Amino acid sequence: MAAADTRGTELGRYLKARRAQVRPQDVGLPAGGGLRRTPGLRREELAALAGMSVDYYIRLERGRETNPSPAVVDALGRALRLRGDGYERLHELAELASGRVSELPASSDHTVRDSVVRMLESVSPLPAYVVNRYNRVLAANPPGRRLLPGLWDWPESQRNLVRYLFLHPVGRTLYEPWEETVALSVAHLRAVAGADPDDPELTALVGELVLKSPDFARLWERYDVCERGGGQKSFRHPKVGPMTLTYEVMRLARTGGQRMVVYQAAPGTPDEKAMLRLQSADARPESAPSVRLEPATEPCPTSAPCPAHASAD
Questions:
Q1: Is the CB of residue 111 less than 8 Å from the CB of residue 94?
Q2: Nearest 10 degrees: CA dihedral of 131, 218, 212, 85?
């Protein structure tokens, strides 16, 4: 399939998934109207709400129409009741389908610059780590490694936070509430995946999780999107106990989408005391190192658009 066709197909997938999330009564339509084979709005209902022909909408959803005007995209966004990240994602996919913007780099750089490693060490005792576009952990300082028990038992190529949430037994109990955490994590993965759905790292990760985790498969099909640049997470840590930490996410320039994530807690609080125990001797370091670093080389500046700034970390 040609690149343009692939981008159009991704726009169509998004429209179909979001159409399934809108109930007729949500947009002032009668809930009846005969047997519905699928949840949500029918194609003809969405086309009517957006003020376009059914044939045109079907071409959009099937990836055959790849150049919708901004006015058409706005109308679809309103009809689908999209807000915030979801509305922006619709416009981004329409831009990509039309070829008006270029795709993100095909894959992230997995090499962490020496200067970034020094930054990781300098923020200790705050837990910190570096992830790539798809939340593969590339490096971490000691408290950052101890924050994620068991992740370091996996090979470097498998240390992905989304995989950890769904497939590692500790990952399924570490975050509280788990259901909310995984929903946001999948929505973030959808957000960064939209520009390049055929990326080999992404397709391998999604294929594995769809097969092994019914929870992931269900959330992936919803096509929710969420871009977050920071927030708060509650942990039930097996070594230091419960704690709620805030985190900030910093995009690293010229890395293909790497982000540094740093956690902290308000000074003098029980949360800070628990976090600081990650640095102490009784919080045994995980056996695996962060990553084997190669000599850093500064890539040439690029005009490609920045990847999604959010993190589901």
A1: no
A2: -10
Three-state secondary-structure class, residue 128 = strand
When pLDDT is cut at 50, 70 and 90, the band that residue 286 belongs to is very low
How would you class 20 by CB atoms within 10 Å of its CB: exposed for 0-12, middle for 13-18, buried for 19 or more?
middle
The string of pLDDT tens digits covering residues 194-237 is 667 778 899 999 999 999 999 999 999 988 888 767 899 999 99
Of the candidates 155, 159, 189, 156, the one whose C-alpha atom is nearest the C-alpha of residue 171 is 159
| Distance (Å) of CA 30 to CA 22, 23, 41, 184 | 13, 10, 11, 32
Helix (H) or strand (E) holding 68: none
pLDDT at 59 over 60: yes
pTM of the complete model: 0.69
Q: Residue 178: is it exposed, middle or buried by C-beta count within 10 angstroms (0-12/13-18/19+)?
A: middle
